[in-house]
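hey all, quick one before standup. I had two proteins in the batch that finished overnight and I want to keep them in one place so we stop losing track of which output belongs to which input. First protein below, input sequence then structure tokens straight from the run.
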Amino acid sequence: MAFDLSDYVDVRQRIEMFREKYPSGTLQPADPNDPFKLVQVGDRWFIAYTACAYRTPDDPRPGIGCAWEPIPGRTPYTKDSELMNAETSAWGRAIHAVLAVDRNTPIASADEVRNRQSDGDVVQLKAVQNRPKPVVRPIGGSEREATPKQQAFLRSLATRLELGDQDLMKIMGCDIEAVTMSVAKQTIDGLLAVQNGNAEMVYGDDSSITIVPNANGSAT
């Protein structure tokens, strides 16, 4: 299913927030003489960019953001635009580092989440923000409660990945005892993808956990 980007702020909006808060601020590469690097990890190549968000021309401690993109890009948004996307993502993180973005927004920008989408959709694994206790998703209509077998398999996968019930709750948006069959299946598929090395878990500063496909495969 498609990932909900409603809680994510794109870099363009972050730049507007940064300008409003720091009118004389600038965004620059950490090393203007060497703004990006090509990095090899195993048999894969990435283009890495480090950006600085200067609040003033003489800012002694600018915000620093790092980002990289696989080469070649695997999505319509990143193919042949790997450097530009890495730069944009690094800008967004640098702006977040100087606390110019609302504290309730995730560190990852909407641009980053979009760029991580492969041929399929990103699996939505989103927590309810600032939740003091588990949120129980009502079961009704055609939504049937997950079977005991599904619940047991979820816990088994979580244990293998060193996750607890609280982590599963963040992933599914509800307590495991109240999860529906469809959400359980989507979560199982996502966790299996992580286990098999075809996806990774991204932790947001809003306590969310998002599974996104990596260059080896899809999390869907």
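OK second protein, same deal, sequence then tokens:
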Amino acid sequence: MSDLAALDHVSSGKVRDIYAVGDDRLLLVASDRISTYDVVHPTPMPDKGKLLTGLTAFWLDRTGSVCPNHLISFTEVPEEFRGRAMLVERLEMVPVECVVRGYITGSGWKDYQSTGAVCGIELPEGLRESEQLPEPIFTPATKADTGHDVNISEEEAGRLIGPDLIGLLVAVDAAKIHLDHVISSKKMERLRLSVHENLLAINQWLVASPSQS
């Protein structure tokens, strides 16, 4: 791996910094920054980035046989970022974030209070905030470059990504069933998928929202 000074900085988000490693790889670096919605707070949480990266690397390794992913190495990274960085394939993003919810919280709770449903899925009456759902549900959202992601239905996600990527939804449903057996106690699980000949899981995998964790 090249020294950090030799890498090209691609972008920085609320939590992660991204560097190009050649034409076909990226270095994802998880910082200790904390944000709520679109506001990054001035005081970081020590080693938060290492925790998020370690959890993601663990689950990418454990679930690789269930859904292929973009991880190349968790250890072949610049020394100053060891433990908080991943070397990954550079892929084309699908503009949908795939969220599997086992509990009613966050934006799902807000939607439920307004409509009694989340992403078009009707839920039982009388649920309390953060209560466990009868079964995990697939609640996709549009991926926005800026601002908040917007919850959409599975049908809307299918129309957005087109008929050639309808297998995305099937893959996520399979992951949802697996999730229910593996870590059903998690409040929110996220996965993102990209297209590069095949569908691959990327970035976050079975961790809570990294900006607020």
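Flagging for whoever picks this up: The chain has two domains: 4-89, 92-205. The first helix runs from residue 48 to 62.
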